[in-house]
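Before the break, one more example. Copy the sequence into your notebook; we will annotate it together after we see the structure.
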Amino acid sequence: MKLLCETSVIRSSNREIKGRFLKSTLAIGKKDEKSKLCIILITSSNKSGIKYDLTNNLAGIFRKFIDEGKCTISFVLPEVDLQIKADSIQLKAFLNIMKNELCPTKDGPNKELGRNDNKLIRAFGSTNKMIADEVTKLNITKRSEFPTKGLPRTLKELHITGVGCLQMPIGILNLSKLTHLDLTSNKIEKLHKAVGNLSINQLILTDNLFGKSTSLKDWEWLNGRNIQLSLHTLIMSRNKLKMAPVSVAKCENLVCLDLSFNELSAVPFSIKQLRHLKTLNLSNNELKSLPCTMRSLYLDLIDLSTNQFHSYTQSLELSQNSLASITTLNFKFPTLFELSSRCVMRQQMPFMSLNIPHIIKEILYHSPNCSKCGSLCFDRTIYKNINIVSLNAKARITTDNSNYFLVDGPLCKISCLNSK
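Here is what the structure looks like once it is written out:
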């Protein structure tokens, strides 16, 4: 077994002196059947390692602070104390290995380490003289490449590609330092809710089965505050998505969104909340129109190629198409929630004010703008192909036809219906 830790070696006669702790690896085992069980201490300055015999050579083990991940192993020869700082669980496992390897009787493992009459009862295995640099990046392309002792908690970048995982490996939830996660070409249908607690910057979910998910609960990981603040790249191409996840609009710092090669027929109106979005890829879908809120985005690059848009010109009049025969709008009396939302807008109250109830915030967050005047609209009636618009002129647009698109959206009043 190898233990990633910090160690300090001091002389037993000078225990009151505090030593300097260095990043180290402790390996326990024996070279062959005739050799004595030993511990090898490997540091960056000594990669070949220093060997300390264990058999009949333990002066004592001090484990009063084992729950804090601290202990001291004292040797007879040389007369030194090996002070260890490590993860408490891993440190306990390391000491248990020592206990099981050193046994004075046939009745079982020795319960009091430090006795000089301990004898070796079995070999643990050979040591690997390898410096314990912190593992920050890991690529896994086969099931056999998964670490037998779990994913290193020091990982910052993890790629699990082409393995065919049916579920996200649960060990990922323990990777608090993870910033880049790539799960390309698996068979994953949803992510664990706790993924939202990770501060991931780049999340690549290409070629999975997220389109099979039909429950909003399967997207609850997007409601985690940590991932909402940290995520700036989300790639979900080739997932057979029929609808874009509405909660993705809560990732307020998202810069790049790729939903290409899916089966999308609509884009959520809440996309207007992605104020930092610069790159949007919606190519190879089934889109016929766009939400009117797309006009509020300031994109640098947008790809709308290979969809079901038709060619439109700016001079096309809405009065000449089927929209002219639409029945008069039936404006219902608004609910109390809608009236409250209108009041918040009229008073220009700060959106994140603690005085605004959560349900009102949700209404304001998801309500689209009127496709004509741009005012916030609380009417739930969405009219298809209500207008023809061009996207932001600064954006580099990739499309099969012109840069003018039909948009869907609500109308807030009769005058907006009659306007051209």
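The CA atoms of residues 151 and 171 lie 6 Å apart. The longest strand covers residues 2-11. Try to locate both features in your own notes.
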